[in-house]
Design a protein that fits this description.
alpha+beta; globular; 26% helix; five-stranded mixed sheet; 18 strands; seven-stranded mixed sheet; phage-related protein like fold; single chain
């Protein structure tokens, strides 16, 4: 570390950032339970892709047929049913850049000032980047990060310049297959109605009124619909909801025991303060601050949609997969909130640092996921 009065080199700040970034990235994974679950289930692919996108298989049925033998002379039917198709997903390249004045570095004295600079610039920058990604994933309105995938099926994201629908549509299977529930019907390169089984589960409170409609009953309905789809991958394990929906669910529990969990220890009654959830059957239900149900991103057909009255996403994270692009940490970076820099800005006393995210996330079993809307009305 520099001695008092010597100032701090931009490279020293870069080195400190490189050492801290892995823990910062892990902090985001545990703060946002979706990525945490995907990583913990081993669904994070860090292999280098050979192109700008990734293809994945979607299997909608069994590959063969069954023949009943009665006399022993029956001809066993063979053949192969083509029940697999391929979806695709792109990993957007997102770069968060921030500048540190050379004057601040020159005036810094010792470890305390280095810690202050890291807190004022890199920590705030990374926190801002994380919040944008969380908002984009939840409702598709993250500022500057519109290429990252969103769950909100009423809006679109553009990972490669072309608009694609958010993953979860707010309509039943027939409505999803008919199309028109949002500005685009293409989800991960596949379309409902054309690809058999490519739809999500859905229910909405009829009034809507969480108490009068028995909102928990509709939540159970969608939970079990999703969970029946993937018997080998377990049930839905994660719910994300807006604040009003989350509080309505808590109120509905009355005096029942509330099993609180964090993102790593199911059933733990003393979770970390950074993220708390409550049990719903075998899933953890988290309040997602980034969901703003007053946002026009939830509108459908230019008017208020069902999600504007509250939304709870039901996710089977075993069906979700994430991947990053890049392998050279000193050039394109590994794309997992990697830090790059410093670069001197010509004709200015500024040093630029960049945080690079080159990540894609997708599901290969859409029907194992779903949503309930209308849950925000008490």
């Amino acid at each position: 570390m520099p001695t008092v009065g010597t100032g701090i080199s931009p490279d020293v700040l870069a080195t400190a950032l490189q050492e801290l970034m892995p823990s910062y990235s892990e902090l985001f994974a545990t703060w946002h339970p979706v990525l945490d679950r995907v990583i913990n289930k081993g669904n994070m692919d860090r292999s280098v892709l050979k192109g700008p996108f990734r293809e994945f298989a979607v299997v909608t049925g069994g590959p063969g047929t069954v023949t009943q033998v009665v006399t022993g002379s029956e001809v066993i039917a063979g053949g192969r049913n083509q029940n697999a198709t391929r979806g695709d997903t792109y990993a957007p390249r997102l770069i968060y850049a921030f500048d540190v004045p050379g004057k601040d570095l020159a005036e810094a004295n010792g470890e305390m000032d280095l810690a202050r600079i890291i807190q004022h610039y890199p920590e705030l920058a990374l926190a801002d980047f994380h919040e944008r990604i969380a908002e984009q994933f939840s409702q598709g309105t993250g500022p500057g990060v519109g290429g990252f995938v969103t769950l909100n099926g009423a809006t679109t994201y553009s990972p490669n310049g072309a608009a694609r629908s958010g993953a979860i549509k707010f309509g039943d299977r027939a409505a999803q297959e008919a199309g028109g529930l949002g500005t685009s019907d293409l989800r991960f390169g596949l379309q409902s109605g054309t690809t058999d089984g490519w739809y999500n589960q859905y229910a909405t409170l009829p009034t809507p009124d969480f108490s009068a409609d028995n909102g928990r009953n509709y939540m159970r309905e969608v939970y079990f619909r999703c969970s029946r789809q993937m018997k080998t991958m377990g049930p839905v394990d994660l719910l994300l909801g807006d604040e009003a929906s989350y509080l309505n669910y808590l109120d509905s529990l009355d005096e029942q025991v509330r099993i609180i969990s964090d993102s790593t220890k199911d059933g733990d009654r003393a979770p970390r303060s950074i993220r708390q959830g409550v049990k719903f059957l075998d899933a953890d239900f988290y309040l997602e601050d980034s969901i703003d149900i007053t946002s026009t991103a939830f509108n459908q057909g230019g008017v208020a949609g069902p999600a504007n009255s509250g939304v709870i996403y039901f996710l089977n994270t075993a069906t979700w997969h994430a991947y990053t692009l890049g392998h050279d940490a000193n050039r394109e970076t590994k794309g997992d909130f990697s830090v790059r820099g410093p670069f001197r800005i010509p004709e200015q006393d500024l040093f630029r640092y960049e945080i690079v995210l080159n990540m894609g996330i997708h599901t290969n079993q859409l029907r194992a996921n779903g949503a309930v809307t209308g849950t925000a009305v008490p």
